Amino acid sequence: MATERIYRAPCPGCGAPVEFRSAQSTHAVCGYCHSTVVRDGETLSRIGKMAELFDDHSPMQLLASGTWNGQGFTLVGRLQYKYREGTWTEWHALLADGSSAWLGDDNGAYVFTLPLNAQRELPPADRFRVGGTTAINGKTFSVASNETVSLISAEGELPHLPALGQEFSVVDLRSAEGEVLSVDYGPTLAGGQPVLSLGRSVLLDDLKLTGLRDESAKEEKGQEFSCPNCGATVAVTLASTKSITCTSCHSLIDLSQGVGAQLQHALQDAPVAPLIPLGSQGTLQGVTWQVVGFQHRLGTEPGDDESFGWNEYLLFNQKRGFCFLVDSQEGWSLVKPTTGAPVMGDSNGQSASYLGTRYQLKDTYRAQTTYVAGEFYWRVQRGQITQNRDFANGSNLLSLEQTPTEAVWSSGSLISSDGVAKAFKLEGQQAMFARSDVAPFSADNSQRLRNVIIMVVVLLILVAVLSRCSSSCDPAYENCASYGARSSGGSFGGYSGGGGHK
Fold first, then answer.
1. Which residues pair with 91 in a beta bridge?
2. What is the distance between the alpha carbons of residues 180 and 185, in angstroms, rounded to a whole number?
3. CB-CB contact of 202 with 112 (8 Å)
4. Are 460 and 354 within one domain?
5. DSSP type of residue 164
6. What stretches of 382-470 adopt beta strand conformation (E)?
């Protein structure tokens, strides 16, 4: 690994050995007593105690090693942060040449970054406007997020260590080439200047990691608590869950402060039943996904009082993180938040380019979440609103969803209705999955003909229901949405509030 010798000394707090593998590391957290240790030459001094680590069930752990850009590295430390919508982890990676890098782990999205020196003094964090553009070191970036964050825990050896619990700003920028630039305004940084790191998205498989957690030996400990509304038992299965719904009364429960904290809940009426049951597993585009969340959303175009609706399934894979299976009138699509930032083709935003492909604007609308079920890695709320733009190039899709603190781009493609039904072993319900990608009538395909007939009957029943409730229903619910008011009929991307940090 690194050519520099390992410095080892007793922890000032408990006497256990504390190691420094990198000459650049100035801080360490004792793995036994959690003392925060500062190194000054050959002397270690204790300056406090670090909070317990939050178990995020990440497959990575200290001393795991891999290869990046042809150079070996070892994970020697980590920082856990929280912000308004969730948490993420930064792993301190020691490269073979003795330099430091960071591997960001944000709910299964991984970014490998290296320190970057700014060629000029950077402005205060509040000067970066989400959705705007800026130039750093002569390169243009889009501002993806501007969040107030704080350190909640740390482990191992670190080149710097923000004060525990003290809030500061982190601005994330994205380039058209898929680069991620983080601007860290941590309060303990030398000279008060922010620290920059520049990198790209990576897949764990590409890093050829060894020394990961033994999944076969890992004990899965689900959490349970009583619903604050009805008292029924609510089980939490994902460590990163920030919102969950009660299966008994459909209350939406906020877990962003932890299960042991004061639970906030909101009642939800008129539940919308997902076609794909929560917990189902299916293989799409060669990856096995599990359905962990579901949300129904309504869109409203400028100057139009009528709404259109669509559904989004949150899918999870341990090594690929999260993505969205979107069910709209235009068909089914599989999309994932992008690492890079597409570039608008003109000031009016009528087109956007991403990774060499040009997309044309199809729709601009306001999106609102009206019903959720399952678990989410961000603090989802009923009534959550984003401003959306959908772009397309054939079957390739691009979507921008924006809030005051975050701009999330998603990309993906349309997939066939039959493919979705088969992926989740629901072939017997293919008629319910059929959307605009249904093939024309065929005299020699009686099965498809029967499916189309069933679909027509279902649609006729739906029209009858809508006609009865059009004057009395709350338009926020799916059964009262006007599906015929818009040609496209749904979003191209799933909202991942809090998931755009990396």
1. 78, 103
2. 16
3. yes
4. yes
5. B
6. 385-393, 396-402, 407-415
Kindly state whether residue 231 falls inside one of the protein's structural domains.
no
* Residue 391 sits in the same domain as residue 484: yes
What percent of the residues of the chain are helix, what percent strand, and what percent coil, each to the nearest 5?
A: 10, 45, 45
> 106 is in which domain, residue-wise?
7-207
Partners of 249 in beta bridges: none
pLDDT at 304: 84
pTM of the model: 0.65
Distance of CA 447 to the CA centre of its chain: 39
Grouping H, G, I as helix, E, B as strand and the rest as coil, residue 40 is strand
Q: Which of 172, 188, 207 is the last residue of a domain?
A: 207
In a domain, 248, yes or no: no
**432: enclosing H helix or E strand:** helix 430-433
Instruction: Tell me: do 347 and 488 sit in the same domain.
Output: yes
Q: What's the pLDDT tens digit per position in 345-386?
A: 877 789 999 888 999 999 999 999 998 888 888 878 778 899
249 inside domain: no
Q: Give the contacts of 395 (CB within 8 A, at least 6 positions apart).
A: 413, 414
The whole-angstrom separation of Cα 416 and Cα 332 is 7
pLDDT, tens digit (0-9, with 9 covering 90-100), for 41-74? 666 666 567 767 766 667 889 999 999 999 999 9
Domain count for the chain? 2
> What is the Rg, in whole angstroms, of the alpha carbon atoms belonging to the chain?
24
